[in-house]
Amino acid sequence: MKLTTLTRAFLRDEEGAISVDWVVITAATVGIALAVMITLGGATDDYSDTVASTMSDKGVSSY
Fold first, then answer.
1. Which terminus of the chain has a lower count of CB atoms within 10 Å, N or C?
2. Sign of CA dihedral 34, 39, 55, 53
């Protein structure tokens, strides 16, 4: 085979494109999940401290 024929065949082959798409989609999903966890984690931690403080002020014992 000639080099030009091999080059054209390589450029027309889309077999690896699907794998790249899935890698990009997976990376975006993981990034969004981490951003949500970081955002909600901080808010949840602050809220739990508030609840613990209120319970302590009311005389509720915790273990």
1. C
2. positive
Q: Write the CB contacts of 52 (distance below 8 Å, at least 6 apart in sequence).
A: 62
CA distances from 48 to 34, 52, 62 (A): 21, 6, 13
- Alpha-carbon distance of 45 to 3, in angstroms, equals 62
Q: Which two tokens stand for residue 52?
A: 């613990």
> Which tens digits make up the pLDDT trace of 6-47?
888 888 877 777 788 899 999 999 999 999 999 888 788 888
Measured distance CA(54)–CA(58) in Å, rounded: 6
